[in-house]
Amino acid sequence: MPRNIENAKAEVQWINNIISGKTELTQQVKEEISTKTVENFRDHINKGFLEYRKSATIAGDFAMTEWSGQGSIITDMLGREFIDMLGGYGLYSLGIRHPKVVEAVNAQLHRSPQYSQELLDPLRAQLGRVLGELTPGDIQYGFFANSGTEGVEGALKLAKLYTGKSGFISTIGSFHGKTAGSLSVMGKSVYRKPLLPLLGNVKYAPYGDADAMEIELMKAATVGDDIAGIIVEPVQGEAGAIVPPDDYWPRLREMCDRYGVLLIADEVQTGFGRVGEIFGVDCWDVAPDIMAFGKALGGGVVPCSGFMSTAKIWECMEPNPFMHTTTTGGNPIACASALAAIGVMLEEDTPKQSAEKGIYMTGKLNELKDRYPGMIKEVRGKGLLIGIEFVDGEVGYHVVAGMFKRGVLTGGTLNNAQTIRIEPALTVPYELLDKTVEIMEEAIKDQI
């Protein structure tokens, strides 16, 4: 594609006028935006998305072009409304555009959106203190970034720096991010295999099997493969809301202490109320050595992530505080967003809401399973991280597609729909949960 400065200028002006409200959103303009969005994905982002996304393949004449949202309702460019049961895969734990988070970000945006990199910034320091008060055990120090995979990268790097060891043990089916280090400990071949070799000395145990994890630790110790830490999700999210046995996390804590390795909890998806407690590990009263955060930390407004650990472990970062840095991580508007989000979480007790609504929703879904045993194999999860496993991916996809046509957005795509996720805002009204179950039943009936 040859360079064309004038075309670039015109395209920037076109979209900026729309964003700023200078262009009236007539029906013609709305249809132009929808059509152009599909063309731009095809020509400038990735053609694969147009087959992968439900919004582009089954939305009718014009693909669903996300434009606005509030709470648990998403409205597309043409005014079509969808109940959001996906929640950005955990991003929207407080719903879309929670007013208190938006207010805090707007206030900070008009004060200072970024920092100088040289002066001390109070919001980053305050976010560290607040999280130090909320995290379990002796966790006290933290570093903030932008995405969940950056939080995991930092956690792995810290573990290696502190222990002087290079190895890790992860779990089969795990998802920790797609940058090189995070990908190295992911338990899914579809993302790893095309990019091998990644970091060496990474081993895997079946998720939820503490005996298998101990065997991996024993083998590594026996043959001299030094292990810095084990990294585990409190509940496996991308794998389909897999909940481990109740003794799993306590046993991980005990064996890590016994073998002298660090316990790393990947709380990117489970943190900040998603599974019915502030953090996933709180479900089993376990304090890890290192925690990684992301998704809901930013309140669904400004991306924010991080990793935290104890004062003892963090000492290895002090001789050279520039050992791990990022220019935009922990910026003022991100920290303002995170601090406001934590305030809402505590004021509205969203972890409790998640626990209660999760019990309610899984109960409703299990009633559906009992009525249609030839369609749904299992309903599982914790809090509002719920997985619905269908008999096969084809049935799952057609059910999800049927729900989408009826105005409910949930997990499950053309490529991966045997298990779909229900992961709405923790503030979602009960009537929307009921409506979702009703619509799912209608979509199931279409397949009988």
TrEMBL record:
Q: Which InterPro entries does this one have?
A: Aminotrans_3, Aminotrans_3_PPA_site, Class-III_PLP-dep_AT, PyrdxlP-dep_Trfase, PyrdxlP-dep_Trfase_major, PyrdxlP-dep_Trfase_small
Specify the species: Pontiella agarivorans
Tell me yes or no: is NADP among this UniProt entry's keywords: no
Principal EC category: transferase
Q: Output this protein's name.
A: Putrescine aminotransferase
UniProt keyword annotations, A-Z: Aminotransferase, Pyridoxal phosphate, Transferase
- Cofactors: pyridoxal 5'-phosphate
Enzyme nomenclature, EC number: 2.6.1.82
Pfam families with a match to the protein in the record: Aminotran_3
The family line of this record is:
Belongs to the class-III pyridoxal-phosphate-dependent aminotransferase family.
- Give the source lineage, highest ranks first: Bacteria, Pseudomonadati, Kiritimatiellota, Kiritimatiellia, Kiritimatiellales
Which GO molecular function annotations are given, in alphabetical order? Answer: putrescine--2-oxoglutarate transaminase activity
